[in-house]
Amino acid sequence: MANHDLVLGQNPDLVLGQNHDLVIGQGHGLGLGQRHGLGLGHAHDHDLGLGQAHDHELGLGHPHDSRLVLGQQHHPHDHGRDHSNELALGQNNDTDEDALDAQNHELGISDNHELTLAETHGLGVDQNMVHLSIDQAQELGLQSAHDISQGHMLVPQVLQNRRLIVNPDHQLTISQEFSDVKSCRRAIRDAAIACRFEIQTVKSDKTRFTAKCAAEGCPWRIHAAKLPGVPTFTIRTIHEMHTCSGINHLGHQQASVQWVANSVEERLRENPHCKPKEILEEIHRMHGITLSYKQAWRGKERIMAAVRGSFEEGYRLLPQYCDQVKRTNPGSIATIYGNPEDNCFRRLFISFYASIYGFVNACRPLIGLDRTLLKSKYLGTLLLATGFDGDGALFPLAFGVVDEESDDNWIWFLSELHTLLEANTENMPRLTILSDRQKGIIDGVDFNFPTAFHGFCMRHLSELFRKEFNNDALVKLLWEAAHALTVIEFEAKILEIEETSQEAAFWIRRIPPRLWATAYFEGTRYGHLTANVVESLNNWILEASGLPIIQMMECIRRQLMTWFNERREASLQWTSILVPSAERRVSDAIECARGYQVGRANEAEFEVVSPHEGTNIVDIRNRCCLCRGWQLYGLPCAHGVAALLSCRQNVHRYTESCFTVATYRKTYSQTIHPIPDKSLWKEMSDANQEGDNKIEIVINPPKSLRPPGRPRKKRVRAEDRGRVKRVVHCSRCNQTGHFRTTCAAPI
Q: Where is this region: Disordered (predicted)?
């Protein structure tokens, strides 16, 4: 300050009332020697000269600028001084010169306005001294004489007026213009949050907006109004002074869900996977306020609804989306079914032509069925039918979305799949279908594919087995029995299970081995024992299942489009005759066949003797071997390779066509085309109709809303199911089954 005044607020004087005296008891003097300084910054700049031979002058900067006056009756040396810069502490307080102490005592005023007395200062205050009242709202409590003589006497800062200091980005000035009333309210709200005070709306309509500070008695006020003839809003008046101290809590009344959404909109558009916890941390770091988790979650959901569309809009636009699928990908199937009573969503079936063509012309006649629950706002189930390409990778064929998983919906989905294959093939192939064989799937397969081989997915079967017995050794033997190629090998593994547990052997024998064991299975699975489609697609299918229905289907379509392009380009780099996985299998068989002895019976039949496996009979004309490896996998086994090499035949010519690179390229020869943005759908639909009176179908969301609670985001792995849970222990009652926080036992 210019004159080093002790300014507390706008008023340089600290008035402590008319009747609040600072009583200094008898024998308790304020001893300040001749050379004892009052330190405000540097010790050598300011001196306090109070003694017998000096006037009682408080030097704050210059020696004659300010005084410490202890009463109305001043020392004779004090007359003529300007009392405007004095600190008045009562009316009749005199300085007793006889009480001056010769010892070294220092009186220090720190930066935070504390009047500090050193431990040995002789300042004594009466036990019954009166509290000093400032505006009847702040009290300055002085401790007992003993405590004050050894501690600190605090003089709090008195704040009478507070000017609105706003970040330049939130500056509010008279004549400042806004495009509409929403922009005006948003700017005022942002300024209030930045300056840590809350506002209360006085008036708000289409032509004016008035707000004031929410603190009682604070004069801060702002008024904005609409200019005549234009939609622009202008700040007309603003009172920028605050007498309040601002908010004293971590939250903020104006930090609404919409404000949270506006604050993190840019970040969410760049990273839609940003978690609510990260949003809370960023808001606290940027604005210094703490919000609830639910507020951050709702703010994120509001932005994501604006970016990806709402769940209700997704169902409403489904008919238009199906039209776009068929328009951009000719030959595709996209049908939607609603409840005839209220048009609520029931079923959706989509299969892209590129998938249909690749499966019918190049894939193995093997289909896996699986499903996953939707994680969206409305309940539902995603049904999947996938094939397998020549290299063993999943080849999604068709997708169905139903309002619930039921036997009727599975029968409907398989009937749609039958119609799809029947319309695109001259002769329906004899399929091999893998699933968990629940009743709806069994009925649907029996009705729509009566000639198909329907087997158990070993993943589902092993899960049930593990839940029943929870023995890793038994589960391992079960898988070995399923992989056994011959009946003798299969029965040997079952006997091992029986030796370990007769109950487990009885349990597994109740299930016909023709439904799950390779040795008894009548169809051709090409080594595939599982149809765990969802677990194989776990990286993205579960994330897609939490989106609105159109966004979910678009996520699936984009993934398929990417897969088709990547696999097509990768196959162009292959120089071998067979796909990599088949090429490795044949190479291993050739290596094993080097030690076999081959005897030829005729042009097609051979006898192959191996040192460890004994004798096997091979028929190269029918492509079969007594070990059954050639028939089951579609590739020559080691015995077949030995027979082919003995008669100088090309091994690659005796493999199934689906394993060749040429067929693999045909699998992904077609393209899944992109679909334009939904803003263009109506315009394109109107252009395609060309005046035809087409009734627009309206689909409402299903009636089944998701129950409260956060849905599971991560699928439970099959190997984790059935695992023994950790036993919890209560440290309060020493019982198991609960924690200390939930213990209800009496003490």
A: 70-95, 699-720
Same structural domain, 439 and 553: yes
- Residue 89 is assigned to a structural domain of this protein: no
Q: What are the backbone dihedrals phi and psi of residue 644, each rounded to the nearest 5 degrees, phi first? A: -65, -40
Q: Both 650 and 544 in a single domain?
A: no
The burial class, CB within 10 Å (0-12 / 13-18 / 19+), for 529 is buried
Tokens encoding 583: 């090429």
**Is residue 428 one of the residues assigned to a domain?**
yes
The C-alpha atoms of residue 625 and residue 457 are separated, in whole angstroms, by: 26
**pLDDT at residue number 628:** 87
Q: Which domain holds residue 629?
A: 578-659
Does position 304 have pLDDT exceeding 70, yes or no?
Answer: yes
Residue 406, in any domain of the structure: yes
In whole angstroms, give the CA distance from residue 476 to residue 316. 49
Asked if 247 and 333 sit in the same domain, the reply is no
Three state DSSP letters for 549-596: HHHHHHHHHHHHHHHHHHHHHHHCCCCCCECHHHHHHHHHHHHHHCCC
Residues 515 and 461: beta-carbon distance below 8 Å = no
Number of domains observed in the structure of the chain: 3
Q: Do 353 and 414 fall into the same domain?
A: yes
242 pairs with which residues across the strands?
162
Q: What is the pLDDT of residues 338-353, one digit of tens each?
A: 988 888 999 999 999 9
Distance CA 469, CA 500 (A): 11
Q: Whole-angstrom Cα distance, residue 93 to residue 73?
A: 7
Residues linked to residue 618 through DSSP beta bridges, in sequence order:
606, 625
pLDDT tens digit sequence for 195-229: 888 888 888 888 888 999 988 889 889 999 887 87
- Residues 528, 615 within the same domain: no
Please tell me the distance from the alpha carbon of residue 573 to that of residue 584, in angstroms, as a whole number.
Answer: 17
